[in-house]
Amino acid sequence: MLNSFFDHQATHEAYFRAHGTKIVYKKGQYIVTPHDDSPWVHFLAEGYVNASFGSYDGTERLLGFFLPGMSFAKIGSFFQRDDGNLQYCAVSPVTVYRIRQEDFLGQLTKDSAFNAEYTNWLLKVQILLIERIVFLAQPTMRQRVLHWLVFMKKYYGEASTDTTCRIAIPLTQDIIGSFLHTTRESVGIILRDLQRDKIISIDNKYITIKQTHLLEEMLI
After folding, report:
1. What is the pTM of this model?
2. Residue with the larger pLDDT of the pair 115 and 76
3. Could you say which architecture CATH assigns to the domain 10-132?
4. Among residues 205, 208, 142, 128, which one has the least CA distance to residue 173?
5. Are the CB atoms for 199 and 212 separated by under 8 Å?
6. Which residue, 181, 209, 65, is CA-closest to 128?
7. What are phi and psi of 42, to 5 degrees?
8. Which pLDDT value is given to residue 36?
9. CATH for 138-217?
10. Which is deepest, 25, 38, 157, 189, by most CB within 10 Å?
């Protein structure tokens, strides 16, 4: 079971299911692109969605993932501004319910529980983005990968036992490189070292942290 840092937005789910339009996306299909006129707010009922942006050098950089039970929107749905290269893509088959931004904002005004869930979500996203800066600021690539693994455990981990944790989202070396602003080759060397030391295992793109306590000790 996903041990998510984020709470399931139950009040949002009830409202979106009652008033929204259900849409199914295939794996790899974009839900929002930088060029969309997207007046929508989405509730993610099933699947995983990644949030990424295009870098100045033409590469794609990951920010993180939306999980089932979250609502999300293009920033321009709320503010008249350029969202740059921000885009959202289905990592797996995805089911969302969507409503127009004016209906969402109206519900925020009318329903205190709905508002509280969204405010809580926004504050936790800020924490996630700060921690993303922290792992990217590490002085060596090895330390960056170690801090990133702890980050992934916290936000996207499935607690198997007291000492092991499986990352819920399948990750290729290209995806990890995008997260860490480095090459897949650099990532591969460090992951192989961690596998050799039995800190992690990788099976069909799923990473399991086999010794969570040892991993956290390695950050000191």
Report:
1. 0.88
2. 115
3. Sandwich (2.60)
4. 205
5. no
6. 65
7. -115, 145
8. 76
9. 1.10.10.10
10. 157
